[in-house]
Amino acid sequence: MSPLPRLLEQLKRKIRDLVELERELADLDRKILGDRPTKPTKKKRARHAATASHGERFEFLLPLLRALRDAAQPLPPRELAALLGVTPKTASRRLARARTLGYVERGHNACYRVTDSVRAVPGI
After folding, report:
1. Predicted pLDDT of residue 51
2. Coil, strand, or helix at residue 34?
3. What CATH number did the domain enclosing 65 receive?
4. Domain presence at residue 16
5. What torsion, rounded to 10 degrees, do the Cα atoms 93, 99, 105, 111 define?
6. Of the residues 91, 98, 100, 109, which has the maximum number of CB atoms within 10 A of its CB?
7. Whole-angstrom distance, CA of residue 11 vs CA of residue 39
8. Residue 100 half-sphere exposure toward CB, CA atoms < 13 A
9. CA torsion sign, 78 to 89 to 120 to 18?
């Protein structure tokens, strides 16, 4: 007997799991943002964002927010990059995006921390 039916069933389950995860991410995003307006993005980025799913666009947020939340003090981009295993340039870009969305704020000496509204959300 061919393993194809079993593989197709596994694929269906994984797709359902992915859809559920994207729903949870969207709910979390709504809780964090509330009624906060976001800055408009450039047309090129907006066009790309329209074709990407929610999870593809914001997959970097949870590890970044968790690292900042768990830190004893605000972190500079270099330290955050080391924690996340990315380059400092990538960490700076991700921090800028999270700051635009209102998830993090920049303090003195270019150190970042999560906003109080993010700290209040369970599950991060």
Report:
1. 45
2. coil
3. 1.10.10.10
4. yes
5. 0
6. 91
7. 37
8. 12
9. negative
